[in-house]
Structure formats: structure tokens, C-alpha cells
Design brief:
Helices cover 60% and strands 4% of the residues. By secondary structure, it is mainly alpha-helical. It has four domains: 43-220, no CATH class; 224-283 and 285-318, no CATH class; 349-401 and 541-690, no CATH class; 406-534, Collagenase (Catalytic Domain). The strands form three sheets. It has a three-stranded antiparallel sheet, with no helix packed on it. Strands 6-8-7 form a three-stranded mixed sheet. A hairpin with a 4-residue loop joins strand 3 and strand 4 (304-307). The N and C termini lie far apart (65 Å). This is Peptidase M3A/M3B catalytic domain-containing protein.
């Protein structure tokens, strides 16, 4: 305990020094919250200083001087001083000597790891009461959960001049430049480029804090949006689902729908009922009394609500779902002015976060969802089901044969994992089954904690070496059911990636993966082996690879449509920034129907279906959805790469590259860029085999 306290003291001393320096500057300027986002340095001053420094230092440093001076000029504010102060700053702080530059990099890298590592720990603790099972969440819990301890980091770094020194010495490269030049960069050059990404903009702390609070509120709204399935009734008054089944929207509802394929009693009837629930959530006609409550019986088809055998008036949710989405838009739009080169959240989501241009992503999605292979796969599914397809068959999961009904799988998982401690104890065994050597498996598992989650679960990575990643999973009092186990294996895949890329990548600024699609790819690799880990599948199945291809294209078909809707909704909000929640609801439903009619109605039937608007990510995780289908494509190519090899060795080899840009990472990992062609070719082969 004492050692930990000493570490904390040193860390907070570093933070305190930066904050103290920042506080002095803020005292002079009152607050950066009121600063003008426009630069105060003239174009002439920039031009003259570049010439003067190039003449003085030498032409070998021309690129660094040009970029550093321009970047710093764009970030300089009147609170930092006048043009003369800026000129003196650049001359004094530009480092031309490579050894001194390396020393600066090492110091920055180490200290940023310290800062972000402890910021992350604090954030984790402040959100515990919201994320983990425990007492009912109170308003004060939400306020602490929405508090962003790092909100002033950027201001403090600029006010203390640390951010400006970084921007001056480590040039920012555009996505196009990173993709083209980065093909030939070594690890150190990539780390320098990522250091150049650290300070691209200056967003006032109050705006960052508002964004954090808004997104936390959205997360809390979704995390507590459960439907008590045992309270659903049909026209005959029958309750088809277990009394104690509570499903989170949308994940739990979707997974319950999936679980009713195959020889399940009244499975189709249950699926249709689940879909009716989804439609009520989308159009907000769902009675608010039945959300997160088991005090009423509800017929989702007729929308009748009963209490103690008597019908009561259903009170609609009043479009809260869309107000939450609108609040996200309003909060994130406030940041636009501080990103002159990425002036919408849409551009930032793709060019800065995903690091793949939106139009490239859209083109990949459209290519797959409109491919002729889709109708042929749909025909095969219809044949296997013995009926015409219905809209919810977008979630068909019959290409992953399960040897036992879900009830039996749940019996197995409940016995194995009665609580989170049991899952924690088994993590090394899971890794050994996936190909890790026992000692390495213990090493990775020792850096992963398992917590009982309120919501569907998530993976929260560490932000400094040798710190704990957190696997949050939903475990019922009776133990972990199969749905929870399946999600937990997915999230554990994230944790393994997080642990490898944090601890085995040599530089903090290079840790992680190119974008979240790459961590989703690892999670999918784990998740699809969930039954293997239970010893329930036959690895000699001759159809296994063909089923994998068919499952991959159908999974892509599902989530690409949802992603196209998500993108169009954000484009609509930017075109209609003054909209209200009801107008936004109508727009979302219209867009969902348009995408459905264009790419899905001819395949799954049912014109004007709103199904593609059910995904909770749209509400609590802005523009995250496109990462999933990109993850499926990447996953398929990585699966191809690891086939016949040791999975653990291959994942280690690929993921220690760190956070390169996607196409460079992929080229080095598998020798090809990201694309849909590998999936389509594998599907063609599978369809021929199955007579389609």
C-alpha cells in the first residue's frame, strides 16, 4: 500500500506542476473558456519566421520547421502573448539536434503515460457506481460519473507551453500522408508522428466537460433500458418468456431473438413478439411504465398495458430516445469550431478516429450490401428455415451450429461461472485453449480484472503499463447465462488486445490499434470460438470454413445497413441543426426505412421497416457503429491469416505494431488492404458447395 501511495504522490506532483503553471496563465487571461478559437498570428509572421529559422538552422530541417511553425501559429492565442512572444517561443524551443529531440520525445512519452494512466484510473473509479452492480444510481453518482478529470488537461498543457513545445517539434501529418509515407516508416518514426497528433486543437475545458457529461447521461439511459420479457403477453394473455428474464435494449432483445432459431418451442412466435417490442422502442410508442419495470403486463402488438388484471393507460416515452441522440449532437457540434481541418464530428469520427475516409467506408458497405451474393445467401437461409424470410431474419445465426439448445448451454455456463471471481480464475485456461503458453496466459490474465456490470458489459483498457484492464460482464444471481458468456468472451478479446498493445508496444503514444474496428476484430476472433472454449464443437467439421464465410457476410449485411443509417442520421442533423426531438425521430425512422427499402426489402421482405434504427449505439456511442462492419471485414482477413497457425503467436506478431493507420497496419499484417473481396470470394465458394 505504501509503495502505491508513493507512486501516486509522484504522479500527482507532476500533474500539480502542470496545473500550477496553467493556473498562472489562466489567471492572466481569466479563463480559456472565453478565448477566441481563431489564431492571432499573421500569415506574414509565419512566412518570415519559417525563412529566418530555415536560414539559421539549415535546409535539412525545412519540413519540420515549416510544419512546426505553422502548427504552433494555429494553436497560439492572445492569452499566450503577441507575435513577438510567439516568435521568441519558436526560436527558443525548436530542437534541431536529433539526440536532444529523442530526449524530448522520451520525456513527453513517459509523462503522458503517467498522466493518462492515472486519469484513466480516476475515471474508472468515478463511474463504478454507474457501471457496476450495486445500489440504485443516484443523481450525485451521475454527476461524478460525468465529471471528466482530464477535462483541463489540454488547457493546462497549452498554458504551461508543454503542448505548444510538442506541436512545434513533432509535426502533424494528415491521414493521406500517414497512409502514403508511413509505409516506409519504422517504429520510432511512427511514434514521432503519433506525438504530432497529440496537440492538433484547443478545445475549452467547459466544452469538453459538457461533452463528457452528455455522453455519460446517454450511457446511463441505455444501460438502464431493460425490458422484462416475462411481462409480455400475446392476444391470448400467455406469457412466452421466463418470468425473471430482463433484457437490455438492444443487445439483449437481439440475442434473445437469435436464440429462438432452431428447434425452440414457439420460437417464431417469440421472435415476432421481440420485433414488435423493438418497433415500439423505435417509434417511442412503448409505454414508459414497462421500461425497466416488472409491475405491468404488456402486449407489444396492441400496446395494451395491464396492472393487477385491469387495463391501464399506457404513457408513451415522449421521444426521450431521440432527445438523448440530439443532446449528443449538440454537445459534439460545439467542438466543431476548434477543428478547422475537421469541422464536423462526422469528419472527426472517420478521418481522426477511424482514420479511413467516410466515403471509402460507405463505398465498402454499399458494395457488400448490394452484392448479388446477398440474395443467394438469403435463399439458402430461407431454405434452411423452411419459410419465407421476415425482416428480423437479418439476425439469422444458423451458420454457427450449436450442439445444444441455449438452455443446456446456460446450464453449463452457470455451473462454470457462478460469479465474476470464477470467470476471473478461468481466464488463463481460456487463453491456453486459444494457443497461449501457460506462463504467458497467466501474465496476460493477471492484468485483467472481472467486474459484475449493470449493463450488457464492456471492456475498459488500462492507460499505462502493468495496470489492470477491466472486463465488465452481466452475471445473474443464478450464474452467467450463455448470452452473458458469449458477450464476456467478446469483451475478453478486447482486454487481451488492450493488454498486449499497452504493454508490448514500445512507446506510449503508439499504444493501441489503428481504430476500434481492429479491437473489434480480435473480439470477434474470440467470440466465434466461445463454444470451442466450452468443448462443444467439432473442429473436423468439413463445413466449418464455409459456414464462417456465410456468417461473415450475413453479419456484415446486418451491421452495414445500421451503419449507413447512423451516417445518414448525422448528416441529416448537420443539415438540420435546429431540429427538435420529434423531428429527429421522424427523420431517423424515414432514413431507416429508405435504407431498408433500397438494400433489404427485396431480400427480407416488408417494405418500410424501421428495424435498422433499433441499435443502442446510435443513442449512446456516436458514429461508433461503422467500426463493427469494418471489424468484421478485418476479422475475416485476420482469420484467413491465422488459419492453420497458432492464433496467439499471430495476434502477438500483428498487434505489437501498435497504432499505425489502418491500411498500413493491414498491409504489414496480412499483405492486403482492407476490402470486401476476400469475403465475397469465400462466400461464392460456400454457395457453390451448398448448391446456390
Amino acid at each position: 500500500m505504501r509503495k502505491n501511495m508513493n507512486k501516486l504522490y509522484k504522479t500527482f506532483l507532476i500533474v500539480a506542476m502542470a496545473i500550477a503553471a496553467g493556473a498562472c496563465a489562466r489567471e492572466k487571461s481569466k479563463t480559456t473558456e472565453t478565448m477566441d478559437p481563431k489564431t492571432v498570428i499573421s500569415a506574414n509572421a509565419v512566412k518570415n519566421l519559417i525563412k529566418e529559422m530555415t536560414d539559421s538552422i539549415g535546409k535539412s530541417q525545412t519540413l519540420r520547421i515549416e510544419r512546426g511553425v505553422k502548427q504552433t501559429a494555429g494553436l497560439w492565442r492572445k492569452e499566450d502573448g503577441d507575435e513577438a512572444a510567439w516568435t521568441a517561443f519558436c526560436k527558443m524551443n525548436f530542437i534541431a539536434d536529433s539526440i536532444q529531440l529523442n530526449d524530448l520525445f522520451s520525456s513527453l512519452d513517459q509523462n503522458f503515460e503517467t498522466l493518462f494512466g492515472f486519469f484513466n484510473r480516476i475515471d474508472l473509479k468515478l463511474k463504478e457506481r454507474i457501471h457496476l452492480v450495486g445500489p440504485e444510481v443516484t443523481p450525485i453518482d451521475e454527476l461524478f460519473g460525468g465529471y471528466d478529470v482530464s477535462a483541463h488537461f489540454q488547457d493546462d498543457m497549452y498554458d504551461s507551453k508543454i503542448g505548444l513545445i510538442t506541436a512545434l517539434n513533432f509535426p502533424y501529418y494528415t491521414l493521406e500522408e500517414k497512409t502514403n509515407l508511413g509505409k516506409n516508416w519504422n517504429t520510432r518514426q511512427w511514434a514521432y508522428a503519433r506525438m504530432g497528433d497529440m496537440f492538433k486543437t484547443r478545445i475549452p475545458a467547459n466544452i469538453k466537460q459538457n461533452t463528457s457529461q452528455t455522453l455519460t447521461s446517454a450511457d446511463n439511459y441505455i444501460s438502464n433500458y431493460n425490458i422484462y420479457m416475462g411481462c409480455l403477453i400475446n392476444e391470448a394473455g400467455e406469457q412466452l418468456f421466463p418470468k425473471d428474464m430482463a433484457l437490455i435494449t438492444h443487445w439483449g432483445l437481439r440475442d434473445e431473438l437469435k436464440s429462438n432459431y432452431g428447434a425452440v418451442e414457439r420460437g417464431l412466435e417469440k421472435q415476432r413478439m421481440v420485433y414488435e417490442v423493438m418497433k415500439r422502442i423505435i417509434d417511442q410508442s412503448i409505454p414508459s411504465q414497462v421500461i425497466n419495470s416488472n409491475n405491468y403486463l404488456w402486449n407489444p402488438v396492441t400496446n395494451r398495458v395491464l396492472q393487477n388484471g385491469k387495463e391501464v393507460e399506457g404513457i408513451a416515452e415522449e421521444d426521450i430516445r431521440y432527445q438523448v441522440l440530439l443532446d449528443n449532437f449538440i454537445a459534439l457540434k460545439k467542438e466543431d469550431a476548434y477543428y478547422p481541418d475537421s469541422s464536423t464530428y462526422i469528419r472527426r469520427a472517420f478521418e481522426l478516429n477511424m482514420e479511413i475516409p467516410q466515403e471509402d467506408v460507405r463505398a465498402l458497405f454499399v458494395e457488400l450490401v448490394s452484392s448479388p451474393q446477398i440474395k443467394r445467401v438469403a435463399s439458402l437461409i430461407s431454405e434452411r428455415l423452411g419459410r419465407p424470410l421476415e425482416p428480423f431474419d437479418i439476425w439469422y445465426n444458423g451458420f454457427t451450429p450449436k450442439p445444444l439448445p441455449e438452455e443446456k448451454l446456460t446450464a453449463i455456463t452457470q455451473k462454470l461461472y457462478p460469479n465474476n471471481m470464477a470467470l476471473k480464475a478461468d481466464l488463463p485456461n481460456i487463453l491456453v485453449k486459444l494457443g497461449w503458453k501457460p506462463e504467458r496466459a497467466k501474465e496476460i490474465a493477471s492484468l485483467v480484472s472481472v467486474d459484475a456490470a449493470r449493463g450488457s458489459g464492456h471492456a475498459w483498457g488500462a492507460q499505462m503499463k502493468n495496470d489492470q484492464a477491466h472486463l465488465r460482464t452481466r452475471i445473474q444471481p443464478t450464474g452467467m447465462d450463455y448470452k452473458g458468456y458469449n458477450i464476456a468472451i467478446h469483451e475478453f478479446g478486447h482486454n487481451v488486445e488492450q493488454t498486449i498493445t499497452m504493454n508490448d508496444v514500445p512507446y506510449f503514444v503508439l499504444n493501441g490499434v489503428p481504430n476500434t474496428a481492429f479491437t473489434e476484430a480480435v473480439a470477434f476472433l474470440f467470440q466465434k470460438r466461445d463454444l470451442d472454449l466450452l468443448g462443444m464443437t467439432n473442429n473436423d467439421d468439413p463445413d466449418k470454413e464455409d459456414f464462417m464465410a456465410l456468417k461473415a457476410i450475413w453479419d456484415c449485411y446486418e451491421i452495414m445497413g445500421v451503419s449507413l443509417v447512423d451516417m445518414k442520421v448525422w448528416e441529416w442533423m448537420y443539415a438540420n441543426p435546429g431540429c427538435n426531438k420529434t423531428e429527429l425521430k421522424e427523420a431517423v425512422i424515414t432514413i431507416a426505412k429508405e435504407v431498408w427499402n433500397k438494400y433489404y426489402a427485396d431480400v427480407l421482405g416488408g417494405k418500410d421497416q424501421p428495424l435498422l434504427a433499433i441499435y443502442s449505439h446510435m443513442i449512446d456511442n456516436p458514429l461508433y457503429l461503422p467500426n463493427y462492419p469494418m471489424g468484421h471485414l478485418i476479422d475475416f482477413q485476420l482469420e484467413d491469416q491465422v488459419r492453420g497457425k497458432n492464433i496467439a503467436d499471430e495476434l502477438q506478431r500483428m498487434y505489437i505494431q501498435g497504432r499505425l493507420v489502418p491500411q498500413v497496419w493491414m498491409q504489414r499484417a496480412v499483405g492486403k488492404p482492407i476490402g470486401v473481396e476476400p469475403v465475397l470470394k469465400a462466400v461464392d465458394k460456400a454457395l457453390i458447395k451448398f448448391g446456390k
